[in-house]
Amino acid sequence: MLRKAAAATSLLLLTTGVVFAQVPGLSPRMDRPSPPKEQRENDKAIDREYQSQLKRTPDAAKKDPWGDIRPAPPAAAKNKQ
Fold first, then answer.
1. Displacement of CA 40 from its chain's centroid (Å)
2. Distances in Å between the alpha carbon of 16 and those of 2, 4, 29?
3. Which of 2, 46, 55, 81 has its CA 20 to 30 A from that of 62?
């Protein structure tokens, strides 16, 4: 009997956690106040600085980190007729 109660309790706890995660209106973060205006402005300034640094990085979009590891593509086969 105790084993069934423990299994039922654990099942109930697991399913309520899943439901809690799926309902958008129920969030433990809803109880927290929003950050102060100074903090939001500081976050925006940090994000702008980060974006400007990304733009200044040379060849950031062209660099292939796996270029040395990836095998070369096979040569085009000659058309045999």
1. 21
2. 21, 18, 17
3. 46
Express each pLDDT in 25-53 by its tens digit. Answer: 655 556 667 889 999 999 999 999 999 98
Instruction: Name residues whose C-beta falls within 8 Å of residue 20's C-beta, 6 or more positions apart in sequence.
Output: 26
The amino acid present at 55, given as its one-letter code, is: K
Rounded CA separation 81/75 (Å): 18
Q: Number of C-alpha atoms within 13 angstroms, CB side, residue 15? A: 6
Look up the pTM and report it. Answer: 0.37
Tokens read off for 80: 């045999």
C-alpha span between 11 and 17 (Å, rounded): 10
C-alpha span between 75 and 15 (Å, rounded): 55
